[in-house]
Amino acid sequence: MQNTSSLSRETKTSEGLSTKTLYLVETALMIAVTLIMGNTFLGTIPTPFLKVSIVTVPVALAAMLIGPTAGVVCGLVFGLNSFFTALTGESGLLSTLFNVNPVGVFLTAVLARFLDAFIVSNLFPIFKKHLGKVSYFITGLLMPLFNTVFFMGLLCIFFYHSDFIQELAATKNATGPLSFVIALVGVQATVEAAIGCLLAGTLGLVLSKVLHRA
Fold first, then answer.
1. What tens digit of pLDDT does each residue of 80-129 get?
2. pLDDT tens digit string along 119-147?
3. Spatial contact of 67 and 24, defined as CB atoms under 8 Å apart
4. Can you tell me whether residue 51 is helix, strand or coil?
5. Whose CA is closest to 180, among 204, 199, 153?
6. Do 124 and 135 touch, CB atoms closer than 8 A?
7. H or E, element range at 46
8. CATH architecture of structural domain 23-210
9. Which of 74, 99, 141, 186: disulfide with 62, CB 3.0–4.6 Å?
10. What is the rounded CA–CA span in Å between residue 23 and residue 73?
């Protein structure tokens, strides 16, 4: 009887380690995808008029398929990578603003992505419980939409009154922060949300069935 109990505990421990290992591997994989998409052409869809970002897609998929924590981790990686590109001069807007307020750039790049990932990743289980399959498409839509809202919101908080942004706002005939945001990214944000809804939603739904996460 003692041997059977011991074997049972060992089996449970083994299963626990296996589950933990799988979780870490899947999270690491989504982190890698986030970094690859954030640093290569794979993270954008070129159109005749816009450069549409889809880097929020792996963040959304991590939240849908692995869990809220994985989604938040990938969101942080997205934000930290964005801040790194600002440091290296590869991010035109943030690199320029870094000389104005480096702390503001850090918060705009990182905090915006953290808030986006944290809120949407934790909303997904609620959506899934009440809305079923539709929850994948809602999450795919909200991730890029909230990313834009938080990013541009923090950008305006820290930099709207800077000379650079004021000059940019003047070229867009913007009379205030809201009109500036709409003029600068309104169309792009709408396109990114639509693509995120279709792409992340479809991938999330299909992969959840393949991986038996539905």
1. 999 999 999 888 889 999 999 999 999 999 999 999 999 999 999 999 99
2. 999 999 999 999 999 999 999 999 999 99
3. no
4. strand
5. 153
6. yes
7. strand 44-46
8. Orthogonal Bundle (1.10)
9. 74
10. 13
DSSP category for residue 43: G
Pair 139, 120: CB distance under 8 Å: yes
- Which one, of 103, 143, 101, lies nearest residue 122 by Cα? 143
Cβ-contact 66, 30 below 8 angstroms: yes
| Cα gap 82→77, rounded to integer Å | 8
Cβ atoms of 37 and 58 within 8 Å: the answer is yes
What contacts 92, CB < 8 A, 6 or more positions away? Answer: none
Q: How big is the chain, counted in residues?
A: 214
Q: What residue ranges do the domains of the chain occupy?
A: 23-210
The tokens of 153 are what?
């919101």
Q: Which residue has the tokens 């709207």?
A: 160
Give the mean pLDDT of 163-177.
94
Closest CA to 136 of 74, 199, 205: 205
Separation between Cα atoms, residue 141 and residue 149, nearest integer Å:
13
Report the SS3 class of residue 152. Answer: helix
